[in-house]
Amino acid sequence: MFDAIHKAAGALGAFVDVDLAAQPDHASLIRNLEVALDEHEVLFFRRQRLTPAEFAALASGLGSIETHPAYITLDDCPDVQILESTSENPSKIEVWHSDMTFRQQPPAVTLLYGKTIPTHGGDTLWASAAMAFQSLSEPMQRLLEGLEAEHDFAHGFRESLEEPGGVERLGEAVRENPAVTHPVIRTHPRSGKKALFVNPLFTTRLMGLSRSESHALMQLLFEHLTTVEHTVRLNWEPDTLAIWDNRTTQHRPVNDFLPQPRVMHRVTVAGEVPR
Fold first, then answer.
1. Helices then strands (H, E): number in the chain?
2. pTM of the full predicted structure?
């Protein structure tokens, strides 16, 4: 099915040689993608030619597609979100995160497709939250497995909410997405990998700890998660597709490309309640 798979870094990530639009056996393609995701956690595909409908169909094979309360979508393919960053409207997501952990059932998988790519800058980094858990000491692992953390949409989008008109634009999303709690350590339902499941964008506190304890432990975990040995970096090219497992990874865009514009198409695949 795949012509070749080349590891991109020691902790996670792989480049996959395949023409996704030319695969006649969709079910077999999806099975191979799931196997590769379980092993490598984030997959990179160069030189893909996918229409929005083909892009959405690929994503739907991995599960039910879900929308995002803060992003617009393509008029002719509402399953595909548009992530556009320009000098007039720059991206405000600049910190490590796993997508939409403010939901009771955060996405399982995200697919991001490069459409308008800057000539320089604009890389994306991923970190293996599974490798980060494995590299903790056993006493720390035992401590964390008994904890839960709060995740909040309003915290993650606080910069947008503070802008003129931000409350009017995102107020409904805030009301529809009250803070939720998830285990600090979650187990992947298919691979069985355990992973750290806190992130600096949406996680606000560790339940049951004092404010100072919670802050200190979260800062330790955020720094540990993104140790360089846990990461991989992608230099985008037009028509590059990245697919990653949100349950075992975090990611961070590098917004160093302005005033050049960047446009990405994204689809998120629904997940389960973290356990």
1. 8, 17
2. 0.93
